Amino acid sequence: MNRESLARLSSPKLLKLADQYGTPLYVYDGDLIVKRYKELYEYIQWDKLKILYAMKANYNVGILKLLKMNDAFVDTVSPAEVLLALKLGFTKERILFTANNTTLNEMKAVQETGVLFNIGSLSELEKYGKTFPGSKVCIRFNPDVYAGEHKNVQTAGRITKFGILLSEVNHVLKIVNKYGLKIVGIHEHTGSGIAQTSKFYKSMTNILSIVNRKKFPDLEFVDFGGGFKVSYHPEAHPIDYNAFGKKIGKIFSDFCKRYGKELYMYFEPGKYVVAESGYLLVEVNTIKNNRGRLIAGTNSGFNHLIRPVLYDAYHHIVNLNNPNGKRKIYDICGNICETKDCFAEQREIPVVKEGDKLAIRNAGAYCYSMGSIYNLRPMPSEVLVMDGKEYLTTKQISNEDLADKLITSARAAF
Ligand code: LLP
H-type helices in 180-324, by residue range? Predict the structure, then answer.
């Protein structure tokens, strides 16, 4: 398959945006997001296909609006995600609610919206059935396969809090019958960044093995979750999604023949849709030589992009001011008071001087959305670039406003 290189927004363009909006700054390539979302419909060989964007990866309103304009569906994991999607005009039929450890009050709030629940524990299923008898529901099973690019992003297998064990299927059916629930979907999500496609196929066949028309007479869809891997390293070997899409279509088509009805197939990618579109632009403000170890200190930190710290994730870093210069090895660090606050350790990049701007690539998924204001450093602004035009979708809050907000919210109480 012919995939273009990771870089789509040029270094001069990124430098211009950094000058215009200041750093740290998140920039997203909206055209690439639409391309990635749409191409999954080309790869996956099944007509009754729905791709639900996992909005936890990036809930930027510009990105959500863009996907909505392209007829997207969304997977949500909290009542606020459901609310945001509804407010942006996604209809309830286009939203799935896949939370875990949901309280009764949260259930009531989401049930009122009419959005379908995807339930992954017997306890929640019991509560849901008792409170809303006769409802339609989707059941999340644990497909009993571990996969994902780091142990912290594996969401199935032996030890996980997610999903109902396949061996508990009869218990599920008992609760469903007791409350007259109607199972319209079954769901699995194995992990994030799945490199071995064989694990994907195995998880599909595992969950399909418990399904037949007698036990699940009302099925409308099977949702195989997200987890499509994208290349974070420029030299990584990309997955052949053409071959993958064909194989998936075949597995599902064989299943539907056995089931006796053509069902919808759902997927819920987050990373695949947005990861490559994003850049975090930072500025180097301090160069330190610690007994020969060079440290480039920047004006951002792991509060803005935590993936290297949490998952040892590799994010490619480009020196926008000196993209092709002589190379040296640096620790590229942040401005947070924590020892592990580094975007990259012992990374070879073109020589860096104070004032240079760096672009941290593939920062579109689980970067801004996992950010915080730790150390009271506000989250960066976000700019969405579409068709050569840019839109400031989120403006960084000033230090002054941040301090005032904290004081105002405490004032009522103390
Ligand atoms: N569906 C469900 C139920 C999920 O739990 C997830 C991700 C997805 C879909 C989307 O997975 P994706 O296609 O984005 O891999 N913060 C981690 C990833 C955690 C993913 C958790 N669940 C990271 O930055 O790698």
Answer: 197-208, 241-259, 271-274, 307-311
